[in-house]
Automatic annotation (TrEMBL):
Protein's UniProt name: Guanidinium exporter
Source organism per UniProt: Ruegeria atlantica
UniProt key word Membrane: yes
Compartment(s): Cell membrane
GO annotations of cellular component type: plasma membrane
Taxonomic placement: Bacteria, Pseudomonadati, Pseudomonadota, Alphaproteobacteria, Rhodobacterales
GO MF term (any one): transmembrane transporter activity
């Protein structure tokens, strides 16, 4: 169960990061509200997952899901560049996540 909570916490991290971008510096109400709600949900689920998971593992995987997920959303939906160095960086993050999970 803590891994499921952590997965959903990471997915909500993607939501709040994208909503923050869409809020245009907190000048748009609904993206800003979505950011706040998803941020609270993300932190709450992370806190619940940390009851059973080590701090380093939980936090690393949570931020990794958010970082790679936000990168993917940026490329797929926001027109951000998909370059070899960015792909390599994302792959290294994923490799780090897998290593952290196995450790």
């Amino acid at each position: 169960m803590p891994w499921i909570l952590l997965l959903f916490a990471g997915l909500l991290e993607i939501v709040w990061a994208v909503a923050m971008k869409q809020s245009a510096g907190f000048t748009r109400l609904w993206p800003t509200a979505l950011m706040g709600v998803s941020m609270i949900g993300s932190f709450g689920l992370l806190a619940l997952a940390m009851r059973d998971l080590p701090l380093g593992t939980a936090y690393t995987i949570w931020t990794g899901i958010g970082a790679v997920g936000a990168f993917m959303v940026g490329v797929m939906f926001l027109g951000e560049a998909l370059t070899a160095p960015r792909l390599i960086a994302a792959a290294l993050i994923v490799a780090g996540l897998v290593t952290m999970k196995l450790a």
